[in-house]
Amino acid sequence: MRVLAFRHVPFEHLGLIGPALGAHGVTFEYVDLFRDPSIPLDLDSATGLIFMGGPMSANDNLPFLAAELRLIERAVAAGKPVLGVCLGAQLIARALGARVYRNEAKEIGWFPVHFTKECAGDSLFEGFNGPETVFHWHGETFDLPEGARLLASSGACRNQAFRYGRNVYGIQFHLEVTPEMIADWLTEDENGADVRALTVRPDPFHNAARLEVLSRTVFGRWAGLCEK
């Protein structure tokens, strides 16, 4: 079992998703269409697709984003498991016909998300009841795609996680990050404007131990979808 993981910048990689996949015998291959949108892909042989975050907008007129939108449409039509994180979630929403737009406020740091009743019986979020403090870094949001189920919300952003069909998931917040990743993001030139606007820099270790537990559960369950 092999999944294709689409990066948009080198520093927004799988993080904690990688070990969760490995624990289920699922391998991964990075696909960097931002380097070359013409990279040939064998979608049929891929068990599932993962789309990571990035500092650009899902609305940007970029060839590699256009290629990814087409791939998402094909994967959904083929019934393959698809997972999107932050920008990746926005791309999935847009591929499903929903609008992506600027959120009223940027969420950067550790903030709680609240889970909806739709989590009952959900393949990834079953048992998530009370709020959980997770890491955020986004300035845009999206409308819920028609037919999708809302799974999580935050005070500053209503649509934080959704499921479409049985195995397509968009997650706006970052369950995949390690403390080292957060510390690195705070130094990256692409994030400079966001960092300069912060009044207090987030502590990379603030809720890292709990986040690792949550990521192991959620991404392990998603890897399980690839086994079916």
Written description of the protein model:
It is a single chain. With 228 residues, this protein is an alpha/beta fold. It has a single domain, classed as 3-Layer(aba) Sandwich (Rossmann fold). The chain is 28% helix and 25% strand. It is built from 6 helices and 9 strands; from the N terminus they run E-H-E-E-H-E-H-E-E-E-E-E-H-H-H. The chain has helices spanning 17-23, 63-78, 87-95, 179-185, 192-197, 208-226, and strands spanning 2-6, 27-31, 48-51, 82-85, 100-115, 132-142, 149-153, 161-164, 168-171. A 9-stranded mixed sheet has the order 2-1-3-4-9-8-7-5-6, with helices on both faces. The longest helix is centred in the C-terminal third of the chain and has 19 residues, at 208-226. It is globular. The N and C termini lie close together (10 Å).
Nearest-angstrom radius of gyration? 16 Å
Characterize the overall form.
Answer: globular
Percent range for helical residues? 25-40%
Any low-confidence stretches, pLDDT <50, length ≥5?
none
Spell out the key features of this protein:
globular, single chain, 9-stranded mixed beta sheet, 9 strands, 228 residues, Rossmann fold
In summary, what is this structure?
The chain is an alpha/beta fold and 228 residues long.
